[in-house]
Structure formats: C-alpha cells, structure tokens
Automatic annotation (TrEMBL):
Source species taxonomy: Eukaryota, Viridiplantae, Streptophyta, Embryophyta, Tracheophyta
Presence of keyword Oxidoreductase: yes
Record-given protein name: 3HCDH domain-containing protein/3HCDH_N domain-containing protein
Catalyzed chemical reaction(s): a 4-saturated-(3S)-3-hydroxyacyl-CoA = a (3E)-enoyl-CoA + H2O; a (3S)-3-hydroxyacyl-CoA = a (2E)-enoyl-CoA + H2O
Superkingdom: Eukaryota
Length: 284
C-alpha cells in the first residue's frame, strides 16, 4: 500500500476547507478546489483562523501550522488535481451533481488515484458507477468541524477494493481520527440516527409543542448534547439536513423519514443556517 502524499479536495465550503486543513497539517500537499472564488477566499480565512486557534490553544506547534499553510494551494482548475494520490469531494449533497463530478474526476485523475466522497448520505456504489474505477471509490465521511471532531465513517461501495479501504483508513488514522465502518445504506450510521432526531426537533417546533430555545435547552441540559438539535441543524446547514432527510426517505422507503415541512420552508426561504447568517436562529 503506497503512502498518500498529495491530496485534492473538491468543494471549499465548511467541510472541504476543514478536510484540506487536516491534510496539510499532516504532511500532505493539498490542492483545494472550488468553482466559486468567494468560497476559496472564505476557505483561506477559515483555515488560517482555525490553525491559529489550534496554535494558541497549544494543540498544534507554530512550525507545523506555518508549514501546513505552505502546503496548501487554492484553485478553480480541475486539471491541477492531476497529480493527487487521493481526491476527496465535499460539494453539494446531490447525487446528480456528485456523479457528474466523479465522471470528470475519473477523466483527469491519475490511474492509481483514489476518489473519495464526504457525502452524508448518498450511495457510494451509485457514485462509483459514474467512474471506470469503482474499486478505487470510497466514502470518507468526516464530521463537522473536521479539525476537531474525532470520527471518520468509512463506507465501502459494492466494488471498493481492500487496498482502497486500507489506504483510506490509514489516512483517517494519520489525521488522528477513529474510524468506524458502515455498509452502503442511505445515511450510513451517524446520519441514520442523528437526522431523524433533528427532523423530530423541527416537527416539535412545527406542531407548537415548545419554543426553539426550550427544545434546544431540553436536549442540551437534559441529555448533555453540546448543541441543541435546532442549533446543530443551523451549524450543519439546513439545506444539507433537508437533502439527507430526502435521501433517507427515498432510500429506506419509510414515511417515518419524511422531511418536516418547516425544514423545507426554511430552505425555500434561503434560511440555510449559520453559513447564511440566518436559519432557525438569526446570527445577524
Ligand atoms: N478549528 C479549530 N479549533 C476549533 C474549531 C475549528 N474550526 N472549532 C472549535 N475549535 C476548538 C476551540 O478552540 C476549543 O478548543 P479548547 O477546547 O482547547 O478550548 C474547542 O474547539 C471548543 O470550541 P468553542 O469553545 O469555541 O466552542 P464549543 O465549546 O461550543 O465547541 C463545537 C464547538 C466543537 C462545534 C461543539 O459545539 C460541538 O461539538 N458541537 C456539536 C458538533 C457536532 O455534533 N458535529 C457533528 C455534526 S453531524 C456531521 O458532521 C455529519 C453530517 O453529515 C451532517
Ligand atoms: P457547503 O455548502 O459549505 O460547501 C459546498 C461547496 O462546494 C461550496 O463552496 C460550493 O461552491 C462548492 N461546489 C458546489 N458544486 C461544486 C462543483 N461542482 N465543483 C467544485 N465546487 C463545488 O457544504 P458543506 O457543508 O461543506 O458540505 C459538503 C459535503 O459534505 C456535502 O456532501 C455534505 O452532505 C457533506 N457533509 C456536511 C457536513 C456538515 O455538517 N455541513 C458534515 C459532514 C458531511
């Protein structure tokens, strides 16, 4: 199994920027790609803020932090990912959009490259079917925020090889993460359990059982969660939560996963959570 030295990350939003940061902090050369130049600008800022925060808390040496910033390149040109040993995508949670990207990545990536998805819920087998190398396609599901959260969920598609699995697991462990493995079913392990809870919190608000503050306080103080479910939904992004619920609903074929209408209405209104400054709560 070859040691991975160069990494491409596609999608420079909250997850992609955090994954790119992890790669650079652990000795890889990293190219972070986004089609939106503003997203790349925001990623540059959030990565240096996060690295400075880790340095100031004593979690990272100044030398490693400075070196990490020197091993990160920002681009909008897919061709620049040509030399990557692994490319991890973290773009929108849409099967069609991700499949189109996998088709392009299969074309530009070197033959030995692993193509990984940070999808929260979508079938890895179906994403792999867009490529000519399904044995080199795998799910690497990081948690938000990637530099802090200790877990990576790994999902093998129907044809993922043992070698691809070992490389992905070794990389996640090199990043200091604990790995859990899920079979390729909608939502995998974490979101299969987490998202119905968040959806239920929206139903609790929608049906007037309690205020948003009391729902969140109930779960924070009542069950020791670091964030209440509505606050967490804002942190994840309401668009992402809705997309995941839709995948669970269709993929698992049970009405208990039907997305709450209130969640859909927030997304329709552009209230996507913290990243837009407004979601269930107003961050303005
Ligand atoms: N970069 C660097 N350091 C960071 C950071 C970042 N992006 N975010 C937080 N930190 C550090 C802080 O510096 C602080 O360090 P110390 O403990 O050394 O002081 C520590 O993390 C805690 O941060 P804060 O004090 O600022 O804030 P907090 O205590 O509220 O913690 C949090 C923030 C870690 C996000 C915490 O609120 C939390 O764990 N929330 C729940 C997160 C969660 O559930 N994530 C999973 C979402 S589901 C998912 O990701 C899957 C999916 O597909 C949707
Ligand atoms: P985000 O909205 O913060 O960022 C997505 C980025 O992808 C945007 O900057 C957008 O410009 C870019 N993008 C969209 N299409 C692109 C394309 N074709 N090529 C290049 N860039 C493109 O989203 P996010 O929260 O970072 O989520 C990204 C992925 O990670 C999703 O699949 C999501 O389900 C998954 N995920 C999210 C979380 C979370 O808490 N938000 C946690 C784990 C996994």
């Amino acid at each position: 199994m070859a040691v991975l030295k160069a990494m491409g990350v596609v999608g420079g939003g909250q997850m992609g920027s955090g994954i790119a940061q992890l790669g650079a902090m652990h000795g890889l050369d990293v190219w972070l790609l986004d089609t939106d130049p503003n997203a790349l600008f925001r990623a540059t800022n959030s990565i240096s803020t996060s690295i400075n925060r880790l340095i100031s808390k004593g979690h990272l040496s100044k030398a490693v932090g400075t070196d990490a910033l020197r091993h990160l390149w920002y681009t909008s040109n897919l061709e620049e990912l040509r030399s990557a040993d692994i490319i991890i995508e973290a773009i929108v949670e849409s099967e069609d959009v991700k499949k189109k990207l996998f088709l392009e990545l299969d074309y530009i990536a070197k033959d030995s490259a692993i193509l990984a998805s940070n999808t929260s819920s979508i079938s890895i087998t179906r994403l792999a079917s867009a490529t000519s190398r399904p044995y080199q396609v795998i799910g690497m599901h990081f948690m938000n925020p990637p530099p802090i959260m200790k877990l990576v969920e790994i999902i093998r598609g129907a044809d993922t090889s043992d070698e691809t699995f070992s490389s992905a697991k070794t990389l996640a462990e090199r990043f200091g993460k604990t790995v859990i493995c899920s079979r390729d079913f909608s939502g995998f392990i974490v979101n299969r359990i987490l998202m119905p809870m968040i959806n239920e919190a929206f139903y609790t608000l929608y049906t007037g059982v309690a205020t948003k503050e009391d729902i969140d306080t109930g779960m924070k103080l009542g069950t020791n969660h670091p964030m209440g479910p509505l606050e967490l939904a804002d942190f994840i992004g309401l668009d992402i939560c809705l997309s995941i619920m839709k995948v669970l609903h269709v993929g698992l074929g049970d009405n208990k996963y039907a997305p709450c209408p209130l969640l859909g209405q927030y997304v329709d209104a552009g209230r996507l959570g913290r990243k837009r400054g407004i979601g269930v709560y107003d961050y303005g």
